[in-house]
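PROTEIN DESIGN WORKSHEET
SECTION A - STRUCTURE
LENGTH: 476
TOKENS:
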């Protein structure tokens, strides 16, 4: 399978942006929705993603157009009188688990980041199960060796989004980079123990139940959980280097180094032509692609240092102060500092243009390969996610990226709920997918029954997120 075009992937992803625009229009025009707003958000924000990778996969532009037409209709209607709050304005939605109001709570993430991360998780949760049914077009599934597809970008985006979030500790206190490496490794390793256990259990269950799997994805024993364990550990090992050079440059260098090893040191030939005969070759896909995932993670970390602080240059200035004379020490992060919105948007637009241009140049001689995690794949994931987080204006005319959280937060309540327990949802989706596949012959189910099943599955995931929206079930 060689997938589809980058433009087609962008069109499918654009449906998420259209649904956000429709949601914002509804928020502007309908203020009295009462207790039904969970259902409204599910229909507006979650269902279009399911339709985009099933019934509308070949014509995503049609679905986007339908959503935008609905948005225009809503904007033409006169606003309804204010009644019970529609979105995240009720008392329970404005209070964090520790009793602080959302305006007082310390987290850094902006509405655009919450929206972006939640959409990435929804796409991942949906594709994990949907790919097993005929209603999911084969061109959206992971490509065998070369090519681009929706599932290929979903995997990279998951890693990239984790990289963005991992910037929070070093933004809050850059001296964390100078802390001794060993204690940080111990702390990270303790947090990763549950994921290590899950990774090992997955291997045992997959082999024990003879669950169908493609060894060209990660290898015979390796899996996505084990890769997720190693990324934060490797990031900690890179902290001394992050202190000294721009993070984006470090991420790019790692990707180039990985590509050099693929092209000039026989890694490509070993990956594509060696049989799965011993423990190393049996897991060659997972082991040899790790450096590419590290590159994506570090580039995500770089983006996090741009969009999370009040200024895009905040982290770079702290780097310079930390490496300068002892009389000039970096300042602590102040979440109440005014954001330099225009500068943040301009810098992200600049990064986006640079990444897309580099991708276009590399693709002249090197096609994208998720299996090898080559430099073209790294650049594609980085360009795609940098552009996606620059979510355009909502109907009120404001950029979601520059809106700050507060009592009037523009973040949809359902997406906030999904983002709060994203990793738990990821685990539940894997378990649910396994149970469904063990009890149903997925390739022989009619499209109508499949869509009903997928809607129920998606509704179950969203209900779980909604019920635990005020509690973080598992703190990483």
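SECTION B - SEQUENCE
RESIDUE ASSIGNMENT:
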């Amino acid at each position: 399978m060689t997938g589809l075009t980058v433009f087609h992937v962008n069109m499918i992803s654009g449906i998420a942006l259209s649904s956000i625009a429709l949601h914002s229009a509804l928020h502007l025009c309908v203020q009295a929705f009462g207790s039904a707003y969970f259902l409204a958000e599910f229909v507006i924000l979650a269902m279009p993603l399911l339709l985009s990778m099933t019934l509308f996969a070949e014509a995503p532009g049609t679905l986007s157009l339908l959503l935008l037409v609905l948005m225009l209709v809503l904007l033409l209607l006169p606003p309804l009188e204010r009644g019970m709050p529609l979105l995240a304005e009720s008392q329970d939605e404005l209070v964090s688990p520790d009793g602080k109001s959302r305006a007082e709570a310390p987290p850094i993430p902006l509405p655009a980041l919450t929206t972006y991360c939640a959409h990435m998780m929804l796409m991942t949760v949906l594709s994990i199960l949907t790919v097993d049914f005929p209603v999911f077009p084969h061109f959206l599934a992971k490509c065998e060796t070369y090519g681009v597809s929706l599932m290929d970008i979903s995997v990279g985006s998951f890693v990239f989004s984790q990289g963005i979030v991992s910037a929070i500790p070093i933004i809050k206190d850059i001296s964390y980079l100078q802390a001794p490496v060993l204690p940080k490794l111990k702390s990270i390793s303790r947090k990763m123990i549950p994921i290590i256990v899950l990774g090992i259990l997955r291997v045992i269950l997959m082999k024990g139940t003879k669950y169908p799997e493609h060894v060209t994805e990660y290898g015979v024993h390796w899996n996505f959980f084990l890769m997720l364990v190693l990324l934060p550990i490797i990031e900690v090992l890179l902290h001394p280097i992050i202190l000294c050079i721009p993070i984006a440059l470090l991420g790019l260098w790692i990707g180039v180094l990985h590509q050099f090893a693929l092209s000039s040191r026989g890694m490509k030939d070993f990956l594509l032509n060696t049989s799965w005969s011993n423990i190393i070759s049996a897991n060659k896909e997972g082991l040899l692609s790790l450096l590419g995932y590290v590159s994506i993670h570090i580039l995500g970390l770089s983006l996090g240092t741009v969009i999370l602080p009040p200024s895009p240059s905040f982290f770079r200035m702290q780097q310079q102060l930390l490496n300068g004379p002892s009389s000039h020490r970096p300042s602590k992060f102040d979440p109440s500092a005014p954001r330099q919105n225009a500068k943040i948007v301009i810098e992200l637009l600049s990064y986006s243009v640079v990444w897309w241009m580099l991708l276009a140049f590399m693709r002249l001689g090197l096609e994208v390969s998720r299996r090898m995690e080559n430099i073209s794949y790294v650049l594609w994931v980085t360009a795609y996610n940098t552009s996606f987080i620059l979510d355009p204006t909502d109907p009120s005319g404001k950029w979601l990226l520059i809106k700050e959280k507060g009592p009037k937060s523009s973040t949809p309540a359902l997406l906030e709920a999904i983002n709060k327990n994203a990793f738990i949802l990821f685990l539940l989706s894997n378990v649910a997918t396994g149970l469904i596949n063990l009890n149903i012959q997925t390739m022989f189910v009619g499209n109508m029954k499949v869509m009903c099943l997928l809607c129920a599955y998606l509704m179950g995931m969203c209900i779980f997120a909604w019920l635990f929206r005020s509690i973080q079930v598992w703190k990483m």
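SECTION C - NOTES
The radius of gyration is 22 Å.
The longest helix spans residues 181-208.
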